[in-house]
Amino acid sequence: MPKKKSSRRRKPVSGQKTRRKAVQPRKKRISRSKPKTGWRRYFTWRYLLLGAVVFTLAWVIYLDIVIRVQFEGKRWALPAQVYGRPLELYAGSPLTPQAFRQELEQLGYRYAYRVSEPGTFYQKGSEFRLYRRAFHFWDGAAPAQLLDVRFGEDVVERVLDPASGEELDIVRLEPPRVGGIYPTHREDRVLVKLEAVPPLLPAGLVAVEDRDFYEHHGVAPRAIARAMLANLKAGATVQGGSTLTQQLVKNFFLSNQRSLWRKANEAVMAVLLEWHYNKDEILEAYLNEIYLGQEKSRAIHGFGLASHFYFDRPIQNLSLPQIATLIALVRGPSYYDPDRHPKRLRKRRDLILSIMAEQGVITPAQASQAKLSGLGVARGQGGDTRYPAFMDLVRRQLQRDYRPEDLTSEGLRIFTTFDPRVQQAAEQAIRRRVQLLDLQRGLQGQLQGAAIVTDTTSGEVLAVVGDRQPRYAGFNRVLDAQRQVGSLIKPAVYLAALEQPDRYTLATPLNDTPIRLQAPDGTVWSPDNYDGESHGTVPLYYALVHSYNQATVRLGMDLGFERIADTLQRLGATREIPPYPSMLLGAVGFTPYEVAGLYQSLASGGFHSPLRVIREVMTAEGERLRRFPLEVQQVVDPAHVTVLVSALHEVTQSGTARSLQQLLPAGLSVAGKTGTTNDLRDSWFAGFSGEHLAVVWLGRDDNQPIGLTGSSGALTVWADILAHIPTRPLSAPVADKVSYHWIDRSSGLLSGEACDNAISLAFVEGSAPTEQATCRAAAAPSTMDRTVNWFKQLFSQ
Amino acid sequence: MMTQKIHGLLLGAGLLLLAGCSITPTQPEGFEVEPAAPDQPQIRPDPQTSKAALALLGKARAAAQEGNLTVAEAQLERAVRIEPQNAVLWHYMAKLRLHQGQLSQAAGLAAKSNSLDRDNMQLQADNWRIIAHVRYQKGDKAGAQAAQRRAEELLK
Predict the structure, then answer these.
(1) Is the CB of B82 inside 8 Å of chain A's CB atoms?
(2) Cβ distance A581 to A557 under 8 Å?
């Protein structure tokens, strides 16, 4: 036998040898004797074989690691619960009975004549009785509590404990739930548990996509054969041979590459998955992972989200035809797109209903009945939140401040600064105004908008709207639309000047005359004013209030880019400021979020607080994880900010934003700045009251002109927001070293309260003009001191 | 090195306030940031402070006494949200940050407190002391001295 074996071996070796002739150098062949060659070949083969086995093993181990990491990484646990701010109730809190009732209803409180269990309330005029639910706040648990709340005019008058009749100093309602997120995952998903989905869905999936699912070990050769047969019979691809497990693996590594190598890898990984996990785990992952659609850059993964996305309802409420439609989409969400190919999709849905009946999942009668209904696609925005732009911000701050492994704890509770009332005002303002302006300007639905509202003192973000359809979870313009800011940058230029009170005050004369600047490459830049005219010598405040470009560029060139960039950076700009003259007029891109960060420092009197959206994080069990405290740094001398703000207030009185006086409630004094970019491509308004800062941007995503200035566009949205939230008027600052003087509007010289054309402006002490203007009125000019007159002016509106 | 001596918690008349601390650097080198003043009067809340804010101050104090400074911090922030113009509340926050060793934040909050007040000289002086202490700890001796002088001038 061994002899035979060796002779058998020899033959191919010699055959091999002849083949080698052509490639091997001669001397090597000479030095090799026949038996030696045989042994070597034998070992070579053995090593090759061994190598192949080792390689295959290593490869399988590698695939095993890859697929397990994928699977574990996407195993869906409880989402983190995100809460808004709790409503604080105390004597004097600014709240109307209507707003209170709305808050209660949003919290799911039920109206009841007998308030006897937590979660019920009763209202009689301006008096409420409610049974507050127990809630585990970050700083401690609060028990359920019976409360009487009495309202005065737009404020809470008293909060009482009905049992004792005692007045309560301060009580919190439980915070509203804003949504659920998976902090470590970028996508928004609505995760479903297998036991919580309608049983027809998994049963239908198995019937249609993989009827041997519960028998096979990841791959099913029989299914492949059957599919081929079915497809041949139908003359088209009606069935696939991939198991659900293979499809799941394919989804983990979405790629269009369809090579044999890839298929083989997927098959191996499918087998490995089946080895590690049971069928239910795999099916649940499939339900949550499978790709079911696309909207612009947003991929729709999982049946939970798809259910919201296509039918605007939670998965539990899907009807049989809707379930069949979603199963139909598995095969190709784009090929069966309900908008573009409704007939195609319906045909496939009906086929699926037939298969389900054929497999005994449903009765034939159910199938025929279901086939009668239309597709009934009713697009919702999807996602487990009504506030996608805000949640996007929450997710990003979590990812910035936490390591991913710290966020894996199940069911984290995240307490945020979200204020539903402010959000509602911002959404309504954007929705209404953008639609109106779009129609007026004939923009055919192209006009977009974004708004962010913060608390001036703390930098807490109260509301974020990233789209004209606020529920739409697409491009978040507040965070991602980086657009030229135009004149919004001017306050920084003027502040850089006012920080040198010995050189510049609000009354310093500036030249608003044509200016030509030549760049090193020879190009000439000569900015015009918006009205196309030059206005000669004007006081500094006047140039800011009327947003004169030529005066601003001249001032900026005097100051130097470095100084202005430094001011911007202190205010909170993190972006590189380009040292070009056009920067002085806002030829620099910021997002609305960044603009809010800059203006925050002005609104809070020179103190920068980073915009903050998360207050606290707690585990599901109530363990305190982390608190993000209020941070405050003085970045500009409060006196200099006070001076600037007195001019920004004047912008809303006599300047580019004077139309605010018609749009805002009487007595609500504010400060702000309009921004308009070249060819009317962007319309901005940034401004603040004593309590709220809001930044609004309007424009088109393709950056085409919109025919709106800052004041004809964004300002109107801004006014709508501020008019619909309870907010404090701008308060007269008490900064040291500042005094208020009456100044002649046009000359910038000292005037008097009773004089014609006089305006009260702030000056750093000792820097006010001394020269007297001619006073046209009867009263003698007088220098008024400090806040008194500014106050008068502020509150007499 | 953080070398501050925390003097526990003071009891306000009828109202329990946040911790008062006196700061005694151990490396005086001929210059003491803060004169030894263990009996330094604790700043009281303005009489116009609302009951709600006072109640939160009480909660903050209780939490601080239990050594739960982050909960105290949360209560103070609630109070500041209700009365953002109340300089005394900001002053308490500054003191709390100092306890927590958050020097820059303490100075920022003290400056914020001062920006909201014009009349309470004791408050402003205390804020300047906090700023002096922070500057000293950060090695800015000249700045610390200047701040200390501001504090002294205010109390003249």
Answers:
(1) yes
(2) yes
Total-model pTM? 0.76
Per-residue pLDDT of chain B (156 residues; tens, 9 = 90+): 333 333 333 323 222 334 444 444 444 343 444 443 434 557 889 889 999 999 999 999 999 999 999 999 999 999 999 999 999 999 999 999 998 999 999 999 999 999 998 889 999 999 999 999 999 999 999 999 999 999 999 988
Contacts of A595 (CB under 8 A, 6+ apart): A485, A488, A684, A686, A695, A697
Tokens of A663: 């749009």
Please provide the DSSP assignment of A489-531 as one string.
Answer: GHHHHHHHHHT-TTT--TT-EEEES---EE-TTS-EE----TT
State the CB neighbour count (10 A cutoff) for residue A41: 16
Contact assignment for A91 to B50 by CB distance below 8 Å: yes
A457, A606, A624 ranked by CB distance to B80: nearest: A457
Q: Phi then psi for A769, rounded to 5 degrees?
A: -65, 150
**Position B106: which residue type?**
A
The pLDDT value recorded for residue B40 is: 53
The average pLDDT across A138-155 equals 94
Cβ distance B54 to A633 less than 8 Å, yes or no, reads: no
Q: For position A108, what pLDDT does the model report?
A: 85
User: What secondary structure, in 3-state letters, does A752-786 show?
Assistant: CCCCCCEEEEEEECCCCCCCECCCCCCCCCCCCCC
Tokens standing for A60? 């399988």
Q: Which chain A residues are Cβ-neighbours of B77 within 8 angstroms?
A: 458, 615, 629-630
Chain B residues within an 8 Å CB radius of A90: 50-52, 82
Q: Give the pLDDT confidence of A481-535 residue by residue, as tens digits.
A: 999 999 999 999 999 999 999 999 999 999 999 999 988 888 899 999 999 999 9
Distance CA A227, CA A213 (A): 14
Measured between alpha carbons, how far is A462 from A84 in angstroms, rounded to an integer? 9
Where is pLDDT greater, at A376 or A789? A376
What the block records as the tokens of A370 is 């279901």
Residue in chain A closest to B115 (alpha carbons) equals A735
- Tell me the one-letter amino acid at A301: H
Query: What's A728's DSSP letter?
Result: P
For position A344, what pLDDT does the model report? 94
End-to-end Cα spacing for chain B: 32
| Beta carbons of B74 and A615 less than 8 Å apart | yes
Give the DSSP per-residue string, A84-150: -PPPEE-TT-B--HHHHHHHHHHTT-EE-SS--STTEEEEETTEEEEEEPPEEETTEEE--EEEEEE
By CB neighbour count within 10 A (0-12 exposed, 13-18 middle, 19+ buried), where does A281 fall? Answer: middle
In whole angstroms, how far apart are CA A172 and each of A241, A616, B124?
A: 58, 16, 33
The one-letter amino acid at A608: H
**Mean pLDDT to the nearest integer, A373-390:** 77
Asked if pLDDT for residue A563 goes beyond 90, the answer is yes
Residue owning tokens 């608003």: A512
Distance CA(A771)–CA(A764), nearest Å, equals: 17
Q: What is the ipTM of this complex?
A: 0.83
Of A90, A457, A638, the CB nearest to B52: A90
E strand spans, A393-506: 413-416, 447-455, 461-465, 483-484
Min CA distance, A157 vs chain B (Å)? 12
pLDDT digits over A83-105, tens only? 999 999 999 999 999 999 999 99
pLDDT for A395 equals: 87
Q: Cβ of B52 and A169 within 8 Å? A: yes
For residue A15, the model assigns a pLDDT of: 40
CA torsion angle for A140, A144, A150, A153 (degrees, to 10)?
A: 50
- Cα of B42 to nearest chain A Cα, Å: 23
CB A760 within 8 A of CB A743: yes
